[in-house]
C-alpha cells in the first residue's frame, strides 16, 4: 500500500477507533484520506473537531453521511422527515459526496 496513489482509510465516527489508528503509530502512507463513514453531523464530535483534536489536515479528512433510508436507496420515498440533511437526493447529501470526491481528486494531484 505504500506504493498506492491514494490510500483511503475508512473509520466510523468514533473517538476510540480514530484515536486507536492515529495515536498508536504514525500512518506509513505518503498519500492518504481518512474517510469517516456513516457520518452524522454532531456539534460535539464533527469533522472540524476531529481534524483539530487529531491534527488531521482538512484536506485529508472526508465523510460519507449516514441516514437509515439510504440503505434502501432504491425506494421511492426514503424517510425524509427524520433527517432532511441526509435524505437520498437531498442537496446536502450530494454536496457532501461531491466534496468527498473533490478531496480525493486533490489528494491524487488533480
Based on secondary structure, the structural category is alpha/beta
Q: Helicity range of the residues?
A: 25-40%
Supply the number of helical segments.
3
**Strand line-up of the largest beta sheet:** 1-2-3
Mean pLDDT over the residues: 78
**SSE series:** EHEHEH
Q: How many β-strands, per DSSP?
A: 3
Proportion of residues in β-strands: 15-25%
Which segments are poorly predicted (pLDDT under 50) over 5 or more consecutive residues? 73-85
Report the major sheet: 3 strands, parallel
What gross morphology would you assign? globular
Radius of gyration: 15 Å
Gap from first CA to last CA = 20 Å
Short synopsis of the structure:
The protein has helices spanning 15-24, 47-53, 91-107; strands at 7-12, 32-39, 61-65. It has 110 residues and is α/β, with parallel strands linked by helices. It is globular, with a radius of gyration of 15 Å.
Amino acid at each position: 500500500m505504500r506504493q498506492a496513489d491514494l490510500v483511503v482509510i475508512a473509520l466510523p465516527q468514533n473517538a476510540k477507533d480514530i484515536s486507536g489508528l492515529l495515536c498508536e503509530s504514525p500512518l506509513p502512507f505518503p498519500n492518504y484520506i481518512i474517510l469517516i463513514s456513516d457520518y452524522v453531523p454532531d456539534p460535539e464530535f464533527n469533522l472540524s473537531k476531529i481534524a483539530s483534536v487529531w491534527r488531521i489536515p482538512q484536506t485529508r479528512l472526508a465523510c460519507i453521511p449516514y441516514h437509515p433510508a439510504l440503505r434502501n436507496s432504491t425506494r421511492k420515498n426514503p424517510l425524509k422527515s427524520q433527517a432532511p440533511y441526509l435524505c437520498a437526493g437531498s442537496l446536502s447529501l450530494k454536496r457532501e459526496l461531491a466534496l468527498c470526491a473533490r478531496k480525493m481528486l486533490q489528494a491524487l494531484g488533480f
